[in-house]
Amino acid sequence: MQLRDIPNIISVLRLIAVIPVVYLLLVNAFGWALLLFIVAGVSDGLDGFLAKHYGWQSRLGGMLDPLADKTLLVCCFLVLGALGLIPLWLVLAVIFRDLMIVGGAVLYNYRVAEVEAAPIPVSKLNTLLQILLLVAVITDAGIRPLPDWLLAGLIWGCLVTVVVSGAQYVWIWGRKAIAQGWKDD
């Protein structure tokens, strides 16, 4: 192990942390789940800082970091949806968008050209709203009741940004694929 491996190790630990977060949510230990969720968020910032600041970026880290982030978010959405704390239609919209983006990226990579993905601004906003919604729902469920208007606003904000960002990704990458053309087999 070298110092440059620290960001990847942090990402792996964040990926492993999904298991206790899910368990804690399932047993209604919302305070502990929220604490671990926040620690995972801080670790995401830490591994990104270390990788960029010290030049410890790697191809593996470029895959592990978003995988850990998406796994945590999607698993929390699934569990909180199953517990009835987030509407099922929003859980399905979030998962459908992510599957559409991943499926489109794989198709583009193999049939058009190598994908050089960069998140669009509305996608970054969507991720922020998803995180805020999860924190708010977990807080409301077990720590302190929050106003209904806050939760409703976050739910609808997530839905709007899920739809808009998903549509933008299809538009942007669809146009690139048309302009580039299919690879010859």
Q: How would you characterize the overall build of this protein?
A:
With 185 residues, the protein is mainly α. Helices cover 80% and strands 0% of the residues. The protein is built from six helices and no strands. Helix 1 (6-26) packs antiparallel against helix 2 and helix 5 (121-142) packs antiparallel against helix 6 (148-180). The chain crosses the membrane at residues 12-40, 71-96, 125-143, 149-173. Pfam families: CDP-OH_P_transf (PF01066). Belongs to the CDP-alcohol phosphatidyltransferase class-I family. It catalyses: a CDP-1,2-diacyl-sn-glycerol + sn-glycerol 3-phosphate = a 1,2-diacyl-sn-glycero-3-phospho-(1'-sn-glycero-3'-phosphate) + CMP + H(+).
Note the overall shape.
globular
- The percent range for strand residues is under 5%
Low-confidence stretches: none
Distance between the termini: 41 Å
Average of per-residue pLDDT values = 92
Pfam family, one: CDP-OH_P_transf
Membrane topology: Multi-pass membrane protein
Transmembrane segments: 12-40, 71-96, 125-143, 149-173
Keywords: Lipid biosynthesis, Lipid metabolism, Membrane, Phospholipid biosynthesis, Phospholipid metabolism, Transferase, Transmembrane, Transmembrane helix
Helices and strands in order:
Elements: H1 6-26, H2 30-53, H3 59-82, H4 88-111, H5 121-142, H6 148-180
Helix pairs in contact: 1-2, 1-3, 2-5, 3-4, 3-5, 4-6, 5-6
